[in-house]
Amino acid sequence: MHLGPGSFLEVAKIIHLLTKGGDSQLPVFDVVAISLPGYAFSEGPKKKGFSMVQSRTKLMLSLGYNEYVTQGGDWGFGQAWHTNFPITGPPPNDDLNSYTPAEQEGLARLANFERFESGYFKQQSTRPQTLVLLDCLPGFMRSLSGGVIIILGQDDEVLTWVSIYWFSRAGPTASLRIYYEVMNSGQGFNSLTLSTVPTIPMGSSLFPKESVRVPKSWYPRIGNSVFEVEHDSGGHFAAYEKPEML
């Protein structure tokens, strides 16, 4: 499950590891690399309040998968799910003194992100049509550049990622709509403290350069956490940056 500002290209470096295995001890998977509504070659949403969960489930059922495993970060459920973006709110009466130094640093980074780095999110989740990006390619590239160009490096990679947005089926700005629809449909980050926690097994991979990180004691609020691992490098685009680790 890709994130923003990303696309199905995020699986380019990890897909062969999943479809070929490595030895007789590793499972081999069918991989469905989706494009979220409004991204790349997917149609843009035509109705208000479209559901992220429903759209994913309908896709998998239409492809003949009654059970499936998901992996994703950011905007990325089935038989099991793995995420490199576990985020939720704190449990009641949580003991702040119980957090590890890494978790305390993660909360400080989260506070810094919310204060200084989340302007794009507030803009796109409230007034997504306000910014004029369609007629300004340099401005559009700037809107994507935050994390993408840093991890890509090569000019052809940068141009490929930008082109996926610029020549997308629904138009360059259609992907911005997902922020507004999700945040105004009761599925936003403020609703991730679930009244009914999914029982399917959840695994989490933690990368040090991820902008958002919460303490592990919060995980039971979003899923049945059975696996957690910390990596010594990597960030927001983990599948593309560190496919072997993921």
Give me the CATH architecture, please. Answer: 3-Layer(aba) Sandwich
CATH class: Alpha Beta
Beta-strand content bin: 5-15%
Low-confidence stretches: none
Number of domains: 1
Helix-residue proportion: 25-40%
InterPro entries: AB_hydrolase_fold (IPR029058), Epox_hydrolase-like (IPR000639)
Family: Belongs to the peptidase S33 family.
Protein name: Alpha/beta-hydrolase
GO molecular function, one term: epoxide hydrolase activity
What is the secondary structure topology, with strand pairs?
Blueprint: H1 15-19, H2 52-62, E1 69-72, E2 80-83, H3 101-117, H4 119-126, H5 137-152, H6 155-166, H7 177-183, E3 201-206, E4 224-230, H8 238-241
Parallel strand pairs: 1-2, 2-3, 3-4
Helix pairs in contact: 4-7, 5-6
Structure, described:
With 246 residues, the protein is an alpha/beta fold. The chain contains eight helices and four strands. Strands 1-2-3-4 form a four-stranded parallel sheet, with no helix packed on it. The longest helix has 17 residues. The two termini are 13 Å apart.
Please tag this protein with its features.
single chain; 246 residues; alpha/beta; Rossmann fold; four-stranded parallel sheet; 8 helices; 4 strands; globular
